[in-house]
Write a structure and sequence with these properties.
Its main location: cytoplasm. This protein is of the alpha/beta class and about 270 residues long. It folds into 2 domains: about 1-160, SPOUT methyltransferase, trefoil knot domain (Alpha/beta knot, 3-Layer(aba) Sandwich), CATH 3.40.1280.10; about 200-265, no CATH class. The chain has 8 helices and 11 strands. The strands form 4 sheets. Strands 2-1-6-5-7 form a 5-stranded parallel β-sheet. A two-stranded antiparallel sheet has the order 3-4. A hairpin with a 5-residue loop joins β10 and β11. The longest helix is centred in the C-terminal third of the chain and has 19 residues, at about 215-230. It is globular and about 70 Å long. Bound molecules: S-adenosylmethionine (SAM).
């Protein structure tokens, strides 16, 4: 996969040299190219922002440098083996939430270009213009506002890169992750343990050393449900009833959940105090 990042803070992307992403780059599984947006400015001050039309506080990123940068990146692909158009990812708090499902979708694309903004964002015409020829995703990494999109690029790149074939040592290891499409789609992973078997008088759950794979798998799934009920009840409400087995239903009932007429689980109503 090729990833281009256009930013006014190239040094912010230094973490892409370390750990999993850094190793994937060193092995040639990931080709990351970081570009300084100011290279596509033509004034003495390398200006990338201007005042917003309509007034108001803050500045807006000018369309010209972004247009030149994205055109240059597109042209650079023409000579490579990449497809003619990359997929543009624009981090913004007003985008679609970044989820594991979207990470899976993006991991199947051969070429991503990230456009992390600063100030109040990028002049809208840039996104609209490229959406006419490229696939564009405006993506939010959470319901909060950062000072810039570079941290979001780090988040999205790491989530996508670990899904690329051969990047994780064990290809199976993301199958049981929280949110993994399939059996874990709306579940959080439960607790994990390692040696020693006793630490500060605390034992590990006995089932984990039983050697009984079926019981271990069931225990893990129960724990996943318990944790999801406690921390993300909204995910339980989204669970497809057809994906739940008999024990899942029993456990949810034990945890105080009730099945509605559509089969979906919801929290039992609290008794109204008189
Ligand atoms: C100060 S923010 C602009 C926020 C904008 N005024 C708004 O309220 O939607 C500057 C840039 O940081 C990035 N950013 C901030 N919060 C983000 C989030 N939750 N997810 C993704 N990117 C974010 C985006 O690139 C954004 O354009």
């Amino acid at each position: 996969m090729r990833i281009d990042v256009v930013t006014i803070f190239p040094e912010y992307l230094e973490p892409l040299n370390v750990s999993l992403v850094g190793k994937a780059r060193a092995r040639g599984q990931l080709d990351v190219r970081v570009h300084d947006l100011r290279e596509w400015t033509h004034d003495r001050h390398n200006t990338v922002d201007d005042t917003p039309y309509g007034g108001g506080p803050g500045m807006v990123m000018k369309p010209e440098p972004w247009g030149e940068a994205l055109d240059a990146i597109e042209a650079s692909g023409a000579s490579d083996t990449e497809p003619a158009a990359p997929v543009l990812v624009v981090p913004t708090p007003s985008g679609r939430p970044f989820t594991q499902q979207l990470a899976v979708e993006l991991s199947a694309k051969p070429w991503l270009v990230f456009a992390p903004a600063r100030y109040e964002g990028i002049d809208r015409r840039v996104i609209d213009a490229y959406a006419e020829r490229w696939e564009v995703h405006e993506v939010s990494i959470g319901d909060y506002v950062l000072a810039g999109g570079e941290a979001a690029v780090l988040v999205i790149t790491e989530a996508v890169a670990r899904l690329l074939p051969g990047v994780l040592g064990n290809a199976e290891s993301h199958r049981d992750d929280s949110f993994a499409p399939g059996a874990m789609a709306n579940l959080l992973e439960g607790p994990v343990y390692t040696k020693p078997p006793v630490w500060r008088d605390r034992d590990i759950p006995e089932v984990l050393v039983s050697g009984h794979h079926g019981k271990i798998a069931r225990w893990r799934r129960d724990e996943a449900f318990r944790r999801t009920c406690a921390n993300r009840p909204d995910l339980i409400e989204r669970c497809d009833p057809a994906a739940l087995d008999k024990r899942d239903r029993e456990l949810l009932a034990e945890l105080g959940w009730v099945q509605g007429p559509d089969g979906r689980f919801g929290r039992a109503a609290e008794p109204v105090e008189q």
